[in-house]
Amino acid sequence: MTEVENISKIDLPILDKSGKQVDTLQIDPAALGGSIRFDLLKQAYVTTHTNQRQGSARTKSRGMVVGSTRKLYRQKGTGNARAGAARTVVRKGGGVAFAKTRTRDAFRSKMTKKMRRLANRNALLAKLVDGEVKCIVDIEMDAPKTRDMVAFLGAIGIDRTCLVALDPANRHAALSARNVENVDTIRVAQLNAFELLNHRYLVIGRASLESFIDGSCFPTTEDATKEVA
To answer: What pTM does this model have?
Structure first.
């Protein structure tokens, strides 16, 4: 990732499905944070990664193991080492010293809403600066065909891991990309720093990119209320 403090206007090439440039989209870096904040991006990445931990590891302590508490044999006179109950932590099948009893929430980490949103936009800015965003006129497909998606990605120069941001209504493209190796799909409104930094390229339609930058792709409070109703 290139270290850039003051970023001027970004001219992003707009490609068609054959990989030919047909237009240019000018993007104001101020709308995406102005400069790349590496500390914020790392914090967002680590936070998301931490929160994905299942956190369900459990071990049984001595008191949780089923078994008798009777002393195995008398203290003296047997020639054996002293021994207590079979559930002791030093015997096979016994309990575990300092057993793990953490809950799922023990590993959770939080960021404020403003920090999280800025990190998501800043990750997109980093991709734009490094030339790793492939903006397409339209990613709509007539039918779900993996072969067509592979040809399309090859035409626009995708040779590493790729994240395809799609509109929820673009079902055919989502089905076409799900079986392609090293290619993942995501809804435009769900673009986040973790997924952006986890993939080399971002493939996104022009309308979707503009809606992400101006914020129109995110559901409002009224929209969320309608969905619940």
So the answer is: 0.77
